[in-house]
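Posting this for the archive.
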Amino acid sequence: MNLLDGGRIGRTLKGFENSIINVLGGSISWGFIANDSSQVSVSGGLINLGLSAHDNSQVNVSGGVIRNLLNAYGNSQISVSGGLFNEKMYLSHDAVVTIDGSDFAVNGTDVGYIELTSILGDSYRYEPYRRLTGTLLNGNPLNNVFQIGNRAKIVLIPEPATLLLLCLGGMTLLRRKRGYGA
């Protein structure tokens, strides 16, 4: 396991062949690329020029700052519950980004808790830009443009308190429906 908890890496940091990397602090100047089933956890620090996950990598982001780009490709999975993101998200080829939070909207329209997928079904490069806003689980704002291509998706997951309220509301409706049918 590799740990970054301070200092500065003045180039691109890459994880290969089942690497396990934890980023707690410090800064990475030229971005971070997770490849070949790497497992990455980002809870602090600054990643300039973006974070990319490729080839079955798993990335968990609970804090820190990621500037410019969040990119998921080739069966990779990125889970986001916190952190500050600037700019863009690109997803392609069966990648999945799950985002835990609340108040999600796409292009200003509330969307609730859904899966966002490709509009045209081709490469993300041909997709229109859309804007995703909301509040992440840790309270950080989310305000990013994104493009999704091929079979990739963004899964929006409610925070635990909202999920509990949704479940309680559903159970109440079910009880009322059963009560009227008796």
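The first strand starts at residue 2 and ends at 9. Residues 91 and 148 are 5 Å apart (CA to CA).
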